[in-house]
């Protein structure tokens, strides 16, 4: 049984993240989605909100569990008995950061392997940051995020006066 870990900030989860989780869940026996809470970082959504939205969005995948974590990813992975890190790649520009992350994690925990899953072209421009910005300025994002995220974004950021939110 090979347990994998898909870590991230998921602030919030997008359809691009869901695609990567679905592909990883089809290959590995068990997938833990680790929602990072870094106390040094400011998030749009709290760790509970990010964990809940992520769990809702992946509830159709029976072998997926969602948990939040703090501290080093490799420590969380050892506690969860996970051997493989899953990361999504959208473009070459992701690679440099991902390469550094993978090598750092290997230095810290040589028994852990990083696997990359390439996204689908229709998600290659998607990021949590871009989704929030487009939403903020009234752009249509309902086909970029799951319904629960769309609803919470609307609750959190009501339309600006004079701006019609799509
Ligand atoms: O969604 P993100 O923000 O690109 O995910 C980044 C994440 C969570 C994978 C990375 O920041 C992480 O693993 N942080 C935990 C701290 C850690 O282990 N750092 C060592 C590697 S630099």
Walk me through what this model shows.
By secondary structure, this protein is an alpha/beta fold. The protein has a single domain, classed as Rossmann fold. Helix content is 41%, strand content 19%. It has helices spanning 15-27, 47-57, 73-80, 92-108, 128-136, 147-156, and strands spanning 3-8, 30-36, 64-69, 84-89, 113-118. A five-stranded parallel sheet has the order 3-2-1-4-5, with helices on both faces. The chain is globular, with a radius of gyration of 16 Å. The mean pLDDT is 95. 4'-phosphopantetheine is lined by residues 7-9, 36, 72-73, 101, 104-105.
Order of helices and strands: EHEHEHEHEHH
Cofactors and ligands: 4'-phosphopantetheine
Question: Over the alpha carbons, how many angstroms does the gyration radius reach?
Answer: 16 Å
- Fourth CATH level, the homologous superfamily: HUPs
Structural class estimated from helices and strands: alpha/beta
Largest sheet: 5 strands, parallel
Strands of the biggest beta sheet: in what spatial order? Answer: 3-2-1-4-5
- Overall, the morphology is globular
For the record, the CATH architecture stands as 3-Layer(aba) Sandwich
> CATH topology, anyone?
Rossmann fold
Number of domains: 1
State the CATH class: Alpha Beta
> Which consecutive residue ranges, at least 5 long each, have pLDDT under 50?
none
Q: What fraction of residues sit in β-strands? A: 15-25%
**Helicity level:** 40-55%
Total beta strands: 5
Distance between the termini: 45 Å
Q: Please tally the helical runs, counting DSSP H or I stretches of 4 or more residues.
A: 6
User: Average pLDDT value?
Assistant: 95
């Amino acid at each position: 049984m090979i347990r994998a870990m898909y870590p991230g900030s998921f602030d919030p989860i997008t359809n691009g993240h869901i695609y990567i989780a679905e592909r990883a869940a089809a290959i590995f026996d068990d997938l833990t989605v680790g929602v990072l809470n870094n106390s040094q970082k400011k998030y749009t959504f709290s760790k509970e909100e990010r964990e809940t939205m992520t769990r809702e969005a992946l509830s159709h995948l029976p072998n997926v569990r969602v948990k939040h974590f703090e501290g080093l990813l490799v420590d969380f992975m050892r506690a969860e008995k996970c051997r493989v890190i899953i990361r999504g790649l959208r473009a070459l520009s992701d690679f440099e950061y991902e390469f550094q992350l993978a090598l750092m994690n290997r230095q810290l925990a040589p028994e852990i392997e990083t696997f990359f899953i390439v996204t689908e072209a229709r998600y290659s421009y998607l990021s949590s940051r871009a989704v929030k910005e487009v939403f903020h300025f009234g752009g249509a994002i309902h086909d970029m995020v799951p319904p629960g995220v769309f609803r919470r974004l609307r609750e959190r950021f009501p339309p600006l006066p004079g701006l019609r939110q799509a």
